[in-house]
Amino acid sequence: MSDFRKLSEAMLASPQLGLDDIAAAASAGVTLIVNNRPDGEAPDAPQGAEIEAAARAAGIDYCAIPVSPGGFGNSQVAAMQEALESAQGVVLAYCRTGTRSTLLWALAQARAGADPDQIAMAARAAGYDLGPVRQAMTALAEQARA
Questions:
Q1: CATH code of 49's domain
Q2: Please, are residues 138 and 114 in contact by the beta-carbon 8 Å criterion?
Q3: Per-residue pLDDT reduced to its tens digit, 11-61
Q4: Residue 127 — left, alpha, or beta (φ > 0 → left; ψ -120 to 50 → alpha)?
């Protein structure tokens, strides 16, 4: 069963996708799926190639920006920002619970100059806590405004 959580009009986060979730994503207007879960993290879950094949068969673009539970790097934040900025519609990002996807989205939004308070409110409304990246969000937003 799909658990797509709305972070913004153009962004959804989700726990691990199953192949049956791809049709639901297409019905929800998703045009890009971003996989933030490293392959092999859960061998019993569909791996990136399976999700990519199903997404492309449904007419949905796909990209992988894997994030280990250990944290984020600047390259991942930049890649997420680029994916969001180039998307032509609704983006659905997923990982094990949706938390890493939400944290990465938040950092990318801050890097683009969005207000950290507004980002945090949107994440909270979707059931996610940005506490672990709040300081980094503030620093990225300040850099973007400089």
A1: 3.90.190.10
A2: no
A3: 999 999 999 999 999 999 999 999 999 999 998 999 999 999 999 999 999
A4: left
Rounded (10°) CA dihedral 75, 81, 87, 89: 140
Which residues share a beta bridge with 61? 32
Burial state string for 71-80 with b = 16 or more CB within 10 A and e = fewer than 16: ebeeebbebb
Backbone angles phi, psi at 22, to 5 degrees: -65, -40
Give CA torsion, residues 11, 13, 14, 20, to 10 deg. Answer: 10
Range of the domain at 33: 5-145
- Closest among 43, 40, 42, 62 to 51, alpha carbons compared: 62
Residue type, 103: L
How many domains does one find in the chain?
1
Q: Which amino acid is at 11?
A: M
Identify any residues that bridge with 90 across adjacent strands, giving them in sequence order. Answer: 30
Q: Is the pTM of this model over 0.90?
A: yes
